[in-house]
Amino acid sequence: MRLGLYVNLYADPADRPRLADAVEQVRLAEQAGFSWAVLGERHLHRPGYHEAVTTLAYLAAHTERIGLATAGLIAPVHHPVHLAETLAHVDVLSGGRLTAGFVLGYRPEEFTLYGARPEERVSRFEECLELLHRLWTEDEVTHHGRRHHLDGAFLSPRPVQAPRPRIWNGGRVPAALERTAWLCDGWTTSFNETDEELPKKVAAYRAAPRGPRSLGSEVIVCREGYAAATSQAARTALEDPLRALYDAYGDWKRTSADAARYAQPWEDIAARSVIGSTAECAERLARYEALGADGVILRIQPPGMPQADALRAIEAFGALTS
């Protein structure tokens, strides 16, 4: 089972964002056999949040082998040419280690910040990904769509990977699964998707028609994760900082259909996570593999968790990859 480390890019109000901890974690994950370091995107977060694409470039300079992925960038708020160019350059700088993961977005204030409207997000998403495909693989692109117009556009340099970097997308509803199958190469689940929901959705995603540019149909399960000597030790390290993050999500996700899941009891959170003793975590990962997952992304360090606790969990999961 391939593992990804979801990197904590938040900052505590008393401590501006620092990338030293992220670099230390990602370098340890690389040594421990993780397949990806995975970054998310967030805006209008007053304590601070590192911008994802420039952070990918920074991590590329401090690592050698580990894949660099996003899960995900809010595609509808980005201009596709700028996005294609910057991501292509991350692939160049990293020697071909990029996986570009996207989401549709849900926060109205983030759309407003970028001059987009939430009701345009599907058309913006689809046009953005179409142009990413073309700009990464074609010598010259002319395009006249609903949102963007290009005449003779091209990228130089283009990505290192051939024919292009892999593309992931997140989403929960049937339309999102169909869109992902047609436009992308992998589906990233929600962190709060329950195990009971996953088999039906994996089957639906895999059964949906593939687009002509698709490179496959990976399933990447996103989960809260913490491995320790005992399940109680894992809960002790993770519960308080994760609860604080979920309390914040209750406000951030007020317009999202899954907002209520962040107020659930610990038992429900643990039931859809990879948290516990190393043996329990190994069993959980094996269950996802049997379900059809190609990889699991683990969010190990919520804001407020000490660096030492995060490093211990990364080492513990690394022992499961060998």
From TrEMBL:
Q: Which InterPro entries match?
A: Luciferase-like_dom (IPR011251), Luciferase-like_sf (IPR036661), SsuD_RutA_monooxygenase (IPR050172)
- The Luciferase-like domain covers 17-294
* Entry keyword set: Flavoprotein, FMN, Monooxygenase, Oxidoreductase
Question: What is this protein identified as?
Answer: LLM class flavin-dependent oxidoreductase
